[in-house]
Amino acid sequence: MATTADFRNGMCLDMDGTYYFIVEFLHVKPGKGPAFVRTKLRNVSTGRVIDKTWNSGVKVEEVRIERRPYQFLYKDEMGYNFMHPETFEQISIPGETIEGVQFLKEGDLVEAMVHTASDTVLTCELPAHVILQITYTEPGVKGDTATNATKPATVETGAEVRVPLFINEGEKIEIDTRDGSYIGRVRE
C-alpha cells in the first residue's frame, strides 16, 4: 500500500479493479482546511483521462509494473506476436493495447508495460518517432495553394498520413506515432 505522498508520474494504481496511470499530480495546501492531492489519471484499458482529488495521506493500492522490450515478429488471428530480445520468449498482444499500432512494422522494438504479479501485458508503446517509406501518394501540383498544403500518403505499414505536397512515392519520412503527424523527410 502506498499513500498520496508516494505519488509520482507514471505510477500505476488499482482503483476498484481498474488500473490507472498517474499522468500528473499536484499537492495543494490551502490556507484553510486540510491538504489534498489533485491528479489526472489515464485508464489503462480505455485510454480515457479522468480527474480525481484525494485527501492527503489516503492509502492507495499500487500496482507493480515492469517495462520490458519486445520485438515485433508478425500478426495473425491471435493478435500481434512479439519476442523478448534477450530471453527469446514469445507473446501475443491484442491490437487494442498497442498505442500507434498502425505504424508497427516487422522488426520494430516496442516497450510493453507488464503487470508483475499476473505477468500480463497492460499496454504496449511504440517509439515516439518511426521512419517509414511512402508506398503511394498522388503527385503534388505546384501553385494550387497558398501555404502549408498537405496531401494523403500511404506508408509501408498501410497507414495513411498527411504529408506536404513535395513528398513523393518511395521517399522515407519520419512520423510521430502518438498522433500520426508528419515530422520530416529522411535523407540517406
What can you see in these coordinates?
With 188 residues, the chain is mainly beta. The protein folds into three domains: 2-62, Roll (SH3 type barrels); 65-125, OB fold (Dihydrolipoamide Acetyltransferase, E2P); 129-186, Beta Barrel (OB fold (Dihydrolipoamide Acetyltransferase, E2P)), CATH 2.40.50. The protein is 0% helix and 55% strand. The strands form three sheets. It has a six-stranded antiparallel sheet, with no helix packed on it. It is flat, with a radius of gyration of 21 Å. The mean pLDDT is 89.
Number of domains: 3
- Calculate Rg over CA atoms: 21 Å
CATH architecture of the largest domain: Roll
Strand order across the largest sheet: 1-6-2-3-4-5
Number of E-type strands: 17
Alpha carbon gap, first and last residue: 51 Å
| Beta-strand content | over 45%
Shape label = flat
Amount of helix: under 10%
Poorly predicted residue ranges? none
Structural class of the helix and strand makeup?
A: mainly beta
Total number of helical segments?
A: 0
Main beta sheet: 6 strands, antiparallel
